[in-house]
Design a protein that fits this description.
Number of helices: 7
Order of helices and strands: EEHHHHEEHHHEE
Strand order of the largest sheet: 1-2
Helix content: 55-70%
Distance between the termini: 78 Å
Number of domains: 1
Strand content: 5-15%
Structural class: mainly alpha
Largest sheet: 2 strands, antiparallel
Shape: flat
């Protein structure tokens, strides 16, 4: 793409905000590496902070925040999926923190990894594949019944019922693929749309001053930038912090719900347990609790 000034001189396409943003044009892969490094540092800090505490000493500061977040994630997994899936808490916690940090990294000028459809579809594929893994693990071949329309035939000799498949159920097949598209596009659309809104908002000073952002700006353009910058902070906080946190929580919750739907309908194991806050065992079996 080529822009032309009044002298009809061609200028190569470039980022109009490169001079204001030192991180402008950073590739997504660099942002992913930065997010990974930040999460790794947080995990190491939490590990060494907890390790040096005594048995009767509570964590403090950032370690306490992570401690509460871990307990909340355990409780969420217990209430949605049941006690057998508490062992998957590290995955859900890592997924939540990764999406959260990826959504917020745009505040300091880097590209949001979740604004790339490749990243969101990759995470959606894990949810999609995990649905079938859980379905086959806990229902075996019975999980395939939902994809087939059939009838039950009763044998006169043995008095047993046999399920006879007739045709494939296209609605169930479409419904099994829809979550992959929905969970991926929802996260990508919200973050990418927020980035577009912020880019348009930051370009308002250029439009009001009537200048092309590809060329040196006159003094009145900088005045507009300072004025609009005061209003940009709340918008940036809303789109990156509030919306980013909500989208991270929604993605994790939808993953849990899709996996829950893959379990047998008569699965009620969670009814026999009770969650215990801030406990290494996480939950106790009801029959082991004294009724006195």
């Amino acid at each position: 793409m080529v822009f032309f000034n009044d002298a009809n001189v061609g200028v190569e396409n470039q980022d109009p905000f490169a001079k204001y943003n030192p991180f402008s044009g950073t590739p997504i892969i660099l942002s992913i590496i930065i997010v990974t490094v930040l999460i790794t540092i947080a995990i190491c800090y939490y590990y060494f902070s907890i390790k040096k505490l005594k048995a009767d000493q509570p964590p403090k500061g950032f370690a306490l925040l992570l401690f509460i977040l871990i307990n909340y994630t355990k409780q969420l997994v217990f209430e949605v999926l049941g006690p057998r899936f508490i062992k998957l808490t590290p995955y859900f916690l890592t997924l939540f923190i990764y999406i959260l940090v990826s959504n917020m990294i745009g505040i300091i000028g880097f590209e949001n990894p979740t604004a790339s459809v490749t990243v969101t579809v990759s995470m959606g594929l894990v949810t999609f594949i995990g649905t079938f893994v859980i379905g086959f693990k806990y229902q075996r071949l019975s999980y395939l019944k939902k994809f087939i329309i059939g009838i039950n035939i009763k044998s006169k000799k043995t008095n047993n019922k046999y399920y006879v498949p007739i045709i494939i159920n296209p609605l169930e097949i479409v419904g099994s693929v829809t979550p992959l598209i929905s969970i991926s596009m929802r996260l990508w659309g919200n973050i990418f749309g927020g980035s577009i809104i912020l880019a348009l908002f930051y370009s308002i000073p250029m439009a009001l001053s009537g200048n092309n952002p590809l060329f040196p700006q006159p003094p009145n353009a900088y005045a507009w930038q300072i004025i609009m910058g005061l209003f940009a902070a709340p918008l940036n906080a809303y789109l990156d912090v509030l919306t980013g946190t909500i989208q991270a929580l929604v993605f994790v919750l939808l993953t849990m719900v899709y996996w829950k739907m893959a379990l047998p309908e008569d699965d009620n194991e969670a009814d026999n347990f009770r969650f215990v806050d801030f406990s290494s065992e996480c939950c106790v079996e009801l029959k082991s609790i004294s009724r006195v």
